């Protein structure tokens, strides 16, 4: 398959939560307008009608390799960080014109060290022009993903189906997952809550309520996204 060496992998495959997401990335809004049905459009892509494409088996194999390599890189960064925090931050030495990237850089050390766990809310449009939104566990992403491409402006941080919460306003696809730092609670009548697994305190993301004990909410104006909010939960040490 062009662009994929035998036994190799493409690191960008880690950005796709599923094979369907990978196929969707090959589609355009015009494709969906004329083909109407997404499943039919995906089948055309899968059968090579829009150029070379990985089979499901190839995708799963290469994505697993890419995920493993990315996790290994993140683990190496984590180990390097413990040895030399200032040198190994992904944001170190970079200048940011956007307030969102500056905010992430300001929080990177605290989230890597465990002094803080931040939840990032992002609402924007995916590559198909569909509005999506979701909540991202920043500390967990830092440990499982290389953030150098985000801080370098090579790619954008976007919510995915494996994050705390994800919703596609066009397809109505909705997912939620607890992370190593937060448990997702659904029994609140005013919306979801996140329970910190270390100190058991509740992070409330309802904009009409306070964020909770030891937590703060920061609204940001960003040129990169339609809507961005960062919730910081500070971990008290005895």
UniProtKB/TrEMBL annotation:
<dbReference type="GO" id="GO:0005737">
    <property type="term" value="C:cytoplasm"/>
</dbReference>
<protein>
    <recommendedName>
        <fullName>Cilia- and flagella-associated protein 299</fullName>
    </recommendedName>
</protein>
<keyword id="KW-0282">Flagellum</keyword>
<comment type="function">
    <text>May be involved in spermatogenesis.</text>
</comment>
<keyword id="KW-0539">Nucleus</keyword>
<dbReference type="Pfam" id="PF14713">
    <property type="entry name" value="DUF4464"/>
</dbReference>
<dbReference type="GO" id="GO:0005634">
    <property type="term" value="C:nucleus"/>
</dbReference>
<keyword id="KW-0966">Cell projection</keyword>
<keyword id="KW-0963">Cytoplasm</keyword>
<dbReference type="InterPro" id="IPR027887">
    <property type="entry name" value="DUF4464"/>
</dbReference>
<keyword id="KW-0969">Cilium</keyword>
């Amino acid at each position: 398959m062009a662009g994929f060496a035998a036994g190799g992998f493409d690191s960008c495959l880690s950005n796709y939560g599923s094979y369907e997401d990978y196929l969707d990335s090959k589609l355009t809004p015009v494709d969906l307008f004329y083909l109407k049905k997404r499943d039919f459009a995906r089948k055309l892509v899968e059968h090579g009608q829009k150029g070379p494409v990985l089979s499901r088996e190839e995708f799963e194999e290469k994505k697993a390799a890419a995920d493993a390599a990315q996790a290994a890189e993140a683990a190496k960064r984590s180990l390097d960080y413990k040895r030399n925090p200032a040198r190994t931050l992904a944001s170190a030495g970079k200048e940011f014109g956007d307030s969102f990237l500056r905010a992430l850089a300001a929080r990177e050390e605290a989230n890597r060290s465990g002094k803080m766990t931040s939840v990032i809310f992002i609402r924007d449009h995916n590559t198909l022009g569909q509005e999506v939104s979701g909540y991202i566990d920043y500390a967990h992403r830092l440990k499982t993903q290389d953030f150098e491409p985000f801080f370098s402006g090579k790619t954008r941080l976007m919510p995915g189906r494996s994050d705390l919460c994800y919703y596609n306003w066009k397809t109505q696809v909705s997912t939620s997952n607890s992370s190593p730092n937060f448990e997702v609670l659904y029994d609140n009548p005013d919306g979801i809550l996140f329970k910190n697994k270390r100190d058991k305190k509740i992070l409330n993301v309802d904009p009409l309520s306070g964020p909770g004990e030891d937590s703060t909410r920061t609204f940001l104006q960003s040129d990169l996204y339609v809507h961005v909010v960062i919730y910081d939960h500070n971990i008290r040490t005895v």
